[in-house]
Write a sequence for this structure.
């Protein structure tokens, strides 16, 4: 059983994964959700390949509690690795069982588009004739033989269209924001000015039937059958609210200094996990400090969710990445049996990390409880999304090294300070990590942040270098007291850790008077890492002029990615423009080449936005970056030409790739800026102001 994918161990019932329909279609279920990353298409292709059917015959059903497999949460670039592996194995079992129904020697049979032929059959038959409408009634406890990758006809090809795009392009209502129900109420929440404000009084007398409004502690909600009126009501009620500020946000020093001053514990990383032992005291001759600010997910659409409470059963339509987790959170908050709560995934705005989808889900459920029988669609405002979503934590990385006489690294040190990267609501904890729970009279306090000790988690993700050094010390330095709410953002600590590592490798190459690619190759032993590094340099035609390079393997076990960035820096304004990106990647067995390319390129573009534009702004009284003017992101006109080359390894397992390029792109960009200007930027974002400050040092 240990050789089975974890998702199959958790849900071994084959009927939860596969169903053959009378019309010839095949329903394949996954507990993972579509966030814009293309997982539904990947699952479709994996199932079609293993069953030898046309992909159009496969219909993918996604994430509904009690119906689809429990795959916990969609995160960590794990969906193809985990759900994909489970679907492949489930389909292999389904194929084996169906063929065994018509032959004593199913290995002699052939299948094409679901039609079975071979020795011993009087006539061709089909999956539909064998199994349609009949459950398998089979529990998967051992693995079965899967299709040999050398026989693949579908996986790794270029021509498969995304199955989730047509409705979006045509404007069909696929998003939770578009839901419509009879007798539906539209809801809005009136928020406090900041984390530390509590409600004194509010006037709800202006709300007249059929509109609704309620107050519970510092939680204020208004509802109307008309969405425009609900929005205006929220503004009007909000103008009557009087709040008291209980304390101020600490904003008296730069974040990098705050992190060092508030360090609570330090854990050297040994055997890939943090250890509760004192770090060694080491001295290095070459040193540098890098940092990033708090970052938003920046979802283009604000969060939303819908809910309805009927006869004690709560149904929730949610864009949460973890429908099984939010189900138990709702049960705890509402004092309900989890079995009385049904959560159905509906797509929302993409985010890549823990944005405000869970918070909106809880808000909708509270409104539905206050209006039993009525479906409620709740939407956040843009200002709410910017102000209240859990941010990617600020980070500081201190690097140090000694070089040998030959110019090789003798000693390497890496110290990373950050706040918790884990703020997703989960059952079984005393506190609760959703905003509404903090504001209700009988609510919950947020959980106390704690350091994570798993391999490659949170702060220390990719802090271990991909390079080999004779001696190294990597230390995770946990800071519990974040001024702002934080949680996971795409790539978590890997973004800043790899940015620092790859920037520092270039600084060391310069100190050793060595070409940056050659310097990296001298410290690499992993042949797959060497291959992507050489491939991207070849793809770009070299790394010279105003170009920089970056390399990493995400989590040191998933997709390998190398990036070359080319920049143009305006000598007058100090504005940085990225003109070209080249990406080479190795994600093992390629499932959906187009989808994989989109993931790699999308991650790289997002990293450019983080590096060039983004920083959450706040003062003692709250968040001040509450719109796209005060929190700018990369515009379409600023996106560079991107070329991507993927090394396919069909005999190897697929590796998660959605978070592989953030770190290498950031390092490549900083190195390109240095190549173009001789200015070393170590603090994100790389704005003209930061470039001028770096030039003045």
């Amino acid at each position: 059983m240990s050789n089975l994918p974890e998702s199959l161990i958790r849900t071994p019932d084959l009927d939860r994964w596969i169903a053959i329909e009378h019309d010839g279609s095949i329903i394949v279920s996954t507990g993972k959700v579509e966030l814009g990353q293309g997982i539904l298409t990947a699952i479709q292709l994996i199932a079609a390949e293993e069953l030898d059917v046309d992909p159009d015959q496969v219909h993918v059903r996604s994430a509904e509690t009690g119906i689809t497999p429990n795959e916990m949460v969609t995160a960590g670039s794990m969906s193809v690795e985990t759900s994909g592996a489970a679907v492949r194995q489930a389909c292999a079992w389904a194929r084996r069982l169906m063929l065994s129904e018509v032959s004593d020697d199913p290995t002699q049979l052939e299948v094409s588009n679901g039609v079975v032929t071979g020795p011993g059959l009087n006539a061709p038959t089909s999956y539909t004739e064998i199994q349609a409408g009949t459950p398998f009634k089979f529990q998967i406890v051992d693995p079965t033989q899967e299709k040999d990758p050398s026989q693949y006809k579908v996986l790794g090809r270029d021509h498969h269209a995304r199955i989730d795009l047509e409705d979006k392009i045509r404007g069909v209502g696929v998003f939770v924001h578009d839901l419509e129900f009879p007798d539906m109420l539209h809801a809005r929440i009136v928020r406090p000015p900041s984390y530390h404000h509590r409600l004194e009084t509010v006037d709800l007398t202006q709300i007249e039937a059929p509109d609704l409004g309620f107050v519970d502690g510092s939680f204020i909600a208004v509802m109307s059958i008309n969405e425009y009126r609900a929005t205006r009501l929220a503004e009007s009620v909000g103008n009557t609210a009087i709040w008291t500020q209980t304390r101020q946000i600490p904003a008296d020093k730069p974040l990098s200094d705050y992190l060092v001053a508030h360090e609570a514990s330090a854990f050297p990383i040994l055997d890939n996990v943090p250890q509760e032992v004192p770090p060694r005291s080491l001295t290095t001759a070459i040193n540098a400090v890098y940092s990033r600010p708090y970052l938003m997910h920046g979802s283009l659409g604000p969060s939303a969710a819908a809910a309805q409470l009927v006869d004690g059963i709560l149904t929730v339509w949610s864009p949460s990445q973890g429908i099984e987790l939010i189900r138990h959170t709702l049960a705890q908050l509402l004092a309900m049996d989890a079995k009385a709560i049904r959560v159905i995934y509906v797509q929302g705005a993409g985010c890549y990390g823990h944005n405000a989808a869970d918070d909106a889900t809880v808000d909708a459920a509270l409104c539905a409880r206050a209006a039993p029988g009525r479906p409620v669609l709740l939407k956040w405002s843009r200002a709410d999304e910017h102000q209240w979503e859990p941010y990617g934590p600020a980070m500081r990385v201190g690097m140090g090294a000694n070089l040998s006489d030959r110019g090789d690294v003798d000693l390497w040190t890496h110290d990373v300070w950050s706040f918790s990267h884990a703020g997703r609501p989960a059952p079984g904890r005393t506190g609760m990590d959703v905003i509404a729970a903090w504001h209700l009279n009988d609510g919950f306090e947020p959980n106390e942040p704690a350091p994570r000790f798993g391999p490659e988690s949170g702060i220390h993700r990719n802090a271990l270098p991909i390079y080999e050094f004779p001696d190294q010390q990597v230390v995770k330095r946990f800071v519990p007291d974040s001024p702002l709410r934080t949680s996971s953002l795409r790539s978590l600590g890997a973004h800043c850790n790899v940015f620092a590592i790859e920037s520092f490798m270039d600084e060391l190459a310069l100190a050793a008077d060595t070409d940056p690619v050659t310097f990296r190759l001298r410290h690499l032993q992993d042949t797959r890492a060497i291959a992507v590094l050489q491939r991207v340099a070849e793809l770009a035609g070299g790394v010279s002029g105003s170009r920089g390079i970056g390399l990493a393997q995400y989590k040191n076990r998933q997709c390998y990615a190398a990036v070359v960035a080319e920049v143009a820096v305006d000598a007058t304004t100090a504005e940085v423009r990225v003109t070209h990106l080249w990406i080479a990647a190795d994600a093992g067995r390629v499932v959906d080449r187009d989808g994989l390319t989109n993931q790699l390129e999308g991650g790289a573009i997002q990293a450019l936005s983080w590096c060039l534009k983004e920083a959450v702004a706040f003062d003692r009284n709250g968040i001040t970056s509450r719109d796209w003017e005060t929190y700018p992101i990369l515009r379409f006109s600023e996106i560079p030409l991107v070329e991507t080359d993927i090394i396919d390894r069909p005999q190897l397992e697929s590796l998660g790739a959605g978070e592989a390029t953030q770190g290498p792109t950031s390092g490549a960009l900083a190195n390109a800026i240095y190549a173009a200007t001789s200015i070393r930027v170590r603090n994100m974002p790389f704005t003209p102001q930061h470039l001028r400050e770096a030039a003045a040092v």
